[in-house]
Amino acid sequence: MKIIREVHSNLEEQLGAYEKLLSFAQEKNVLLSDSSDRDKAKKLETLVKREVEVIQVLQELEKNRVQACDDEKYVEAIKQVDKVEEILSPIKKSLKSVVLELKNLNDRNSLLIGVSLKIVNKIFSVLRDIKCGNKSTYSRINKKNIATSYRSVNFTV
Fold first, then answer.
1. b or e along 86-108 (b: 16 or more beta carbons within 10 Å of the residue's beta carbon)?
2. Whole-prediction pTM value?
3. What are the DSSP E strand ranges found in 1-157?
4. 63, 79, 92, 95: most buried by Cβ count inside 10 Å?
5. What is the DSSP-derived secondary structure letter of residue 36?
6. Helix axes 72-80, 2-33, angle to 10 degrees
7. Shortest CA distance to 138 belongs to which of 128, 130, 147?
8. For the purposes of burial, counting CB atoms within 10 Å of the CB of 7, is it exposed (0-12), middle (13-18) or buried (19 or more)?
9. In the structure, what pLDDT confidence band is assigned to residue 62 with cuts at 50, 70 and 90?
10. Is the sign of the CA dihedral 124, 125, 131, 135 positive or negative?
11. How far apart are alpha carbons 137 and 146 in whole angstroms?
12. CA 120 to CA 109: how far, in whole Å?
């Protein structure tokens, strides 16, 4: 039963780490949506650094959990304890919920970043064209003067 408590404790720590990642993703969403924040890049960089630290902790926790679950003692404990599902089911449900919400929020953030990159690329394209002397979207259209000729009709008798 001790090993089951250890796995449960590990999963609770993972849940806390995923909740931190979720709060970072929410902060990023606000930053990506807010066009008035001038320190956006610095704040995003700080958030990403904090996310990396949490992800490293998660990797270590998951490694420890997998090692514990591969242990023969864990397999024997599961066979002996009837209430394992009752003990681990609530944490499983919580983890699924948080991870799904995190995935959805990261998808939205990814979409916002993609749109921002397209806009930046378009701006660079226009600026490059202006610098190189090419016509940009807002330049005047240079019409060629084409001589128009009409067939004349002779009305003399």
1. eeeeebeeebeebeeebeebeee
2. 0.72
3. none
4. 95
5. S
6. 100
7. 130
8. buried
9. very high
10. negative
11. 24
12. 16
Give yes or no for a contact between 32 and 109, defined as CB atoms under 8 angstroms apart: yes
pLDDT digit string, tens, across residues 68-80 = 888 787 777 777 7
Q: How far apart are CA 59 and CA 56, in angstroms?
A: 5
Q: Taking a C-beta distance cutoff of 8 angstroms, is the pair 68, 10 a contact?
A: yes
Distances in whole angstroms, Cα of residue 90 to Cα of each of 13, 25, 65, 84, 123? 14, 24, 17, 11, 50
Decide if 105 contacts 27 (C-beta within 8 A): no
The Cα-based distances of 138 to 124, 132, 133, 143 in angstroms read 14, 15, 13, 15
Q: Angle formed by the axes of helices 2-33 and 84-131, to 10°? A: 30
Residue 34 is which amino acid? D
Residue of higher predicted confidence among 37 and 25: 25
Asked if 114 and 34 touch (Cβ cutoff 8 Å), the reply is no
